[in-house]
Amino acid sequence: MNTLTIEDLKGIVAHISRIVDRSREHLIEIDGQIGDGDLGITMARGFAAARSETESVADADCGKLLMKVGAALAKAAPSTMGTLLASGFLAGGKAVAGSDALDLSSLAAFFNAFVDGVARRGKAKPGEKTVLDVLSPAAEALASAAAAGEELSAGMERCFDAAREGLVKTRDMIAQHGRPAYYQEQSRGKEDPGAAAGFLVIQGFRDWVVGPRP
Amino acid sequence: MKKFLNAPEHFVDDMLDGIYFAHPDQLAYVADDPRCVVRAGTMPTGKVGLATGGGSGHLPLFLGYVGEGMLDGCSVGGVFQSPSSEQMLNVTRAISRGAGVLYIYGNYGGDIMNFDMAKELASAENIRVEQVVAGEDVASAPKNQAAKRRGVAGIFFVYKCAGAAAAELLNLDEVRRVAEKAAANVRTIGVALAPNIVPEVGKPQFTLAENEMEIGMGIHGEPGIRRGPLRPSDEIVAEMMEPILSDLPFGAGDEVAILVNGLGATPKEELYIVCRKVGLLLKERRIKAYRTYVGEFATSLEMAGASISLLRLDAELKRFLARPARTPFFEQVQL
């Protein structure tokens, strides 16, 4: 597989929905420590909606499909994370509008615009213990893999590794945004819940391309 | 969890069914979505539309202040969750009468992002939208980071003053100016005695020992500034009033409106015990109480506790505060 077709993207959205469902309790628990504890609920609801909105799409435009994911998230999961991811999918989808398949460089363009969309909506930048600390290195890894002419699967692995590393790094950060910011020093040592949710999105893409890790 | 529930996931929509049944003369909804609340009846042409929105679990906030002399519309989210930008846009369209729409809402990330999106969508439809974000909880951030403060019960005063200004057909810039002035002159602090339970989560959002309180806790259980053993009410009130009074600051000769607000499970008797000490402390400092509101204005499900808000009045805010209002949760004749 060196490109993602519209059917692949539908499969990825459904897979993200499954992963989020499996992680529902984990997300509730980590969000309950420094957030308001509903992240698992809103993410599960949002991606279930995205899945049902996209599975019957007949149009072959990958960008439109990804924008549809954003619109579904915005509607079904208007929580902070839902809205941020919605803004990401909307901006990312717009960047690849008109493509009937995504190769590694268009996937990199998608995630690059995704990161911009999230940063703009959340008025945040990397290093502030947010989902950007997962998404931004993930997008950069994709871009450098694309620039090096790597295969899609190799690029996706690099992206996933960068995302995971980014997620771990959020533990050492002090939250600057949203409810976790009220915990200041106490937020140190804890993974950012939003970053954990963003990681599941990257995992969904990676698993689809490379196959689930054992 | 011991609640009147049919199913946790139906909590908000079942509540709304009841609201529309009880107040058919005052509330209606648009876009075939009960979460898009507007005033029943007609709105005069040329009036600025006032909209708010926010998560459920705080009645009378937010929808309870839709009515005469206050707000024109409200989008309703899940428990402690922002409504969607689409719902906000639907309300915006419905209350737009050519004079623009003002959003007044609390300073929370999810709400800000969605109202920002709704504003962008509305401006694409040539509806001019301005926003006033209320954040007056002195416990939520220091004064030099006031932009980070959470919006809590004091938003009631912003609705009241802006609502009266809009009812007099002031233009959008003027209504916004009044709302901003009210928001800039109100300060609040809360104290929690016992936690709330979000129906879909099913367990208390935080724990407080039998004999513990937390001063400064937010209306979604956000951490406060001090947790400690429960003290006599007068001592708690004195501890709460100090950061409010010194923040603005409120001083001798000022005239204020007071709001002593119950968080959901605290009886009115106790609120009046709190109110008593607020009155004594104001008198000591020669701050004049113009009007005192006591009751539930912004709750957090069944959280036990209270908040105290003070609004410093000038002639203009006083005049707008005194104007009549009639909503499902708040009624006042001309003062």
Number of separate domains of chain B: 2
What is the N-to-C succession of helices and strands of chain A? EHHHHHEHHHH
> pLDDT below 50 for ≥5 consecutive residues: which ranges of chain A?
none
Strands ordered across the widest β-sheet of chain A: 1-2
Q: What is the CATH-assigned architecture of chain A?
A: Alpha Horseshoe
Number of helices of chain A: 9
Largest interface: A-B, 26 and 28 residues
Regarding CATH, which class of the largest domain in chain B? Answer: Alpha Beta
CATH overall fold name of the largest domain in chain B: Rossmann fold
Helix content of chain A: 55-70%
Would you identify the regions of chain B where 5 or more consecutive residues have pLDDT less than 50? none
Question: What is the helix content of chain B?
Answer: 25-40%
Order of helices and strands of chain B: HEEEEHEHEHHEEEHEHEEHEE
Q: Can you give me a brief rundown of this structure?
A:
The complex is a heterodimer of chains A (214) and B (335). Chain A has helices at 6-22, 24-34, 39-54, 62-76, 80-95, 104-122, 132-147, 152-169, 193-210, and strands at residues 4-5, 101-102.
What features would you highlight for this structure?
heterodimer; A: 214 residues; mainly alpha; Serine Threonine Protein Phosphatase 5, Tetratricopeptide repeat; two-stranded antiparallel sheet; 9 helices; 2% strand; B: 335 residues; alpha/beta; Rossmann fold; Hypothetical Protein Tm841, Chain: A,domain 3; 2 domains; 6-stranded mixed β-sheet; 8 helices
